[in-house]
Amino acid sequence: MTKAPAWIDKRALLLLHRESLAQFGGAGGLRDEGLLDSALARPVNKHTYEGCKELADLAAAYGFGLARNHPFIDGNKRAAFLAVGVFLAINGHRLAATPVDAIESILALAAGSIDEAQFAEWIKRNLHGAADDPF
Hints:
By secondary structure, the chain is mostly helical. The chain has helices spanning 10-24, 33-50, 55-69, 76-90, 99-111, 116-125; strands at 93-95, 127-129. It has a two-stranded antiparallel sheet with strand order 1-2. Helix 1 packs across helix 4 (76-90), helix 3 packs across helix 5 and helix 4 (76-90) packs across helix 5 (99-111).
């Protein structure tokens, strides 16, 4: 990747989180806005200050930050996975994992059974770019 990626807008993630709660249930609201800001800044900082250019690594940083920081009262794992998917989509890629594999991976990340680097490797194995898309 040569140019800076498109980043997730905080308002968009908040909207997706609310929609997720409306569809699947859970208590609404932020537990700690600072933790949300920290999670959203994590991939930006990795890109800017660590020189990280791999989309999968940056997507994993979103997932890790949201799943581990628990900024929301409920739905943190859903928000984490939504952030991963949205980030990849707005940068021309998509995940092609089975629903069961995706659920197991985000649960493992949230529980600490896998770390951010392992989650990034999982994303890389399941990543499809725009050129790979048959549609």
